[in-house]
Amino acid sequence: MKQVLSIQDLSCLGRCSLTVALPVISAMGSACAVLPTAVLSTHTGFPSPHVQPLTENIAPIHAHWQRLDVRFDAVTVGYLANAEQVRSVLPLLRDHREKGSLIIADPAMGDHGRLYSGLLPEHVDAMKDICRSAHILLPNVTEAALLTGMPYRSDPEDSYLKELAQGLLELGADAAIVTGFLFPNGEIGFYGIHRQRGSFSFRNEHIDRRCHGTGDLFAAAFTGGMMTGRTEQESAVLAARFVRQCVAATPEATPYGVAFESQLPCLWQLLQE
Ligand code: PXL
Fold first, then answer.
1. pLDDT for 100-148, tens place per residue?
2. Contact yes or no for 218/244 (Cβ under 8 A)
């Protein structure tokens, strides 16, 4: 059985980060270990959440795993609470990269052209170092623009996406997939580029229901797909189809996240196709 480590916050309410990664990666047949980097009463899309960073736990947990000689097939990293916390995750990522883990980074730090509430501009530079240690990057358009220094565009053309994705590869990853992009014809999709295998993209009917946590859901399903031996492109298509099914099953847009629970059995079916 494949072993995945998911490094991100535990938001007690609001279906994102670990509360999405654990069920999805498990349902796809991999064991999911967790490194909770902060506890929040809710994600930061709710007003004034209680935030307790757990930064001081990261190095001792890493040290214990080193003594146990723990290895993971993949290490995924998502939302981190502040720049200091981002920096504290780096030694663990570099260590596991050397041990042969696939490092997948979803540099979750903003949307709709802005940083998430509570994050400071220094977060972007720190996140660039995480991206330099990763094999695969999964940013949305906002995050890709922040990481590459390109302007954010809400209605970009293919040429802009291509430039964004190529700029991301310059950080050193093997592949970058810009997710959750709304095309001018109303479809939603992703644009990916692989250093050796070239570019790929995918479009889906867009359901106009602004749901929180779709990026986290995509990253989790993508990781689960990679652990079944699929390529980046195949895993991204699988993840995009799963996210769409989950959004379709969500009765209304609320900050409580995507109603993915009823779709977990369908995930198994998607894996059989
Ligand atoms: O879905 C990304 C995310 C994860 N974790 C926390 C967040 C957000 C986005 O707002 O606030 C705590």
1. 999 999 999 999 999 999 999 999 999 999 999 999 999 999 999 999 9
2. no
The DSSP call for residue 44 is T
Taking residue 157's Cβ as centre, other Cβ atoms within 10 Å add up to 11
Pocket test for ligand 1, best of 15, 17, 77 (most atoms within 8 A of CB): 17
Helices (H), 107-209: 122-132, 141-148, 158-169
Domain containing 70: what range? 3-272
Number of domains present in the structure of the chain? 1
| CA-proximal residue: ligand 1, atom 8 (nearest) | 43
Please give the distance, rounded to the nearest whole angstrom, from the Cα atom of residue 44 to the centre of ligand 1. 6
Q: Which CATH number is 64's domain given?
A: 3.40.1190.20
Predicted confidence band at 235 (pLDDT cuts at 50, 70, 90)? very high
Q: What is the pTM of this model?
A: 0.97
